[in-house]
């Protein structure tokens, strides 16, 4: 569904068809991917939703259940797919992914090498970034994970943009067929320093490498290896802080002389005129950091292949 092929391209103007993959949105922290079937039924706390009612509606539609509850039917963008995919391994999220794509300088037409594939969260966004003429070659040493990733890319319409291979990149390196062909290389490995020499051979002149590591000790050892043939070595940690913005009711107290006695939060409107004091309730917008904010995911180390003069 994320394919860049014209006849398959998802847009909010195209209506949902049988066999389409849609993201069912209940709330910001509760979404799921559902394949539309003529006789299919979705049941949740909001009621029963018939897939047949979805067919013919455009992506983004609000549909109702037998109980009057509702959900939204969203197109499976790379960002939403990252939030609903099966976690076979730790995944990268939107903040890290967007940073990686920018610093790897990935544009349509690029050839990108990735190891390892894992759950395919980053791979999905890489494929969209290189479309329609580029390609992502991703490798995982675990055969079952690679097979599951292929199935996911088929579901999301990315199979023409992504090739999944089974290979131990740490031990064997990347295939020789890619020597000097890659615009960018991404490594998500326990011992990335073992794959860095091979990655350097795969990159075009002035190509960029990124290594993702959860521990700073991995970063230190990788940077030592990178110094041999890379330059502009930099490491970042992306920390995303989200905010909750909502309306709160505040109760302020004043005496008849006009003096303010302060204010406090009040969930229900009430007044108390006793002893010459009156209470009034007003609505105000309150913003505070979300308690669900994600912390450290890992370190991103970037380096540029040194040009040979």
UniProtKB/TrEMBL annotation:
Residues 69-304 form the tRNA (adenine(58)-N(1))-methyltransferase catalytic subunit TRM61 C-terminal domain. InterPro entries: SAM-dependent_MTases_sf, TRM61_C, tRNA_MeTrfase_Gcd14. The keyword Methyltransferase applies. SUPFAM superfamilies: S-adenosyl-L-methionine-dependent methyltransferases (SSF53335). It holds the Pfam family GCD14. This is tRNA (adenine(58)-N(1))-methyltransferase. It comes from Coffea arabica (Arabian coffee). Residues 256-278 are annotated as: Disordered. It is an enzyme of class 2 (transferase). It is found in: Nucleus. GO terms for molecular function: tRNA (adenine(58)-N1)-methyltransferase activity. Keywords: Methyltransferase, Nucleus, S-adenosyl-L-methionine, Transferase, tRNA processing. GO terms for biological process: tRNA methylation. Belongs to the class I-like SAM-binding methyltransferase superfamily. TRM61 family. It catalyses: adenosine(58) in tRNA + S-adenosyl-L-methionine = N(1)-methyladenosine(58) in tRNA + S-adenosyl-L-homocysteine + H(+). S-adenosyl-L-methionine binds at residues 119-122, 140, 168, 188. Its EC number is 2.1.1.220. GO terms for cellular component: nucleus; tRNA (m1A) methyltransferase complex. It comes from the Eukaryota.
């Amino acid at each position: 569904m994320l394919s860049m092929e014209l006849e398959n391209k998802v847009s909010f103007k195209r209506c949902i068809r049988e066999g389409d993959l849609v993201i069912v949105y209940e709330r910001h922290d509760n979404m799921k991917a559902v394949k539309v079937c003529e006789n299919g039924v979705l049941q949740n706390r909001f009621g029963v939703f018939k897939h047949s009612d979805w067919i013919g509606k455009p992506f983004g539609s609000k549909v109702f259940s037998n109980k009057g509850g509702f959900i939204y039917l969203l197109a499976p963008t790379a960002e939403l797919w990252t939030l609903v995919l099966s976690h076979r391994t730790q995944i990268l999220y939107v903040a890290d992914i967007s940073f990686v794509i920018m610093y790897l300088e990935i544009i349509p037409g690029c050839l990108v090498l990735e190891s390892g594939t894992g759950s395919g969260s980053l791979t999905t966004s890489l494929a969209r970034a290189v479309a329609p003429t580029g390609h992502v070659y991703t490798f995982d040493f675990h055969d079952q994970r690679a097979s599951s990733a292929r199935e996911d890319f088929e579901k999301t319409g990315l199979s023409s943009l992504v090739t999944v291979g089974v290979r131990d990149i740490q031990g064997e390196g990347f295939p020789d067929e890619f020597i000097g062909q890659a615009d960018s290389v991404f490594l998500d490995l326990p011992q990335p320093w073992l794959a860095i020499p091979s990655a350097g051979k795969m990159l075009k002149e002035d190509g960029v490498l990124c290594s993702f590591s959860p521990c700073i000790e991995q970063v230190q050892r990788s940077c030592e290896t990178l110094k041999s043939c890379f330059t502009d070595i930099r490491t970042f940690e992306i920390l995303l802080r989200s905010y909750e913005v909502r309306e709160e009711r505040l109760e302020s107290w004043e005496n008849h002389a006009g003096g303010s006695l302060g204010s406090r939060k009040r969930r229900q409107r009430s007044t108390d005129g006793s002893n010459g004091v009156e209470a009034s309730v007003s609505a105000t917008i309150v913003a505070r950091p979300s308690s669900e904010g994600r912390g450290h995911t890992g370190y991103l180390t970037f380096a540029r292949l040194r040009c040979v003069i």
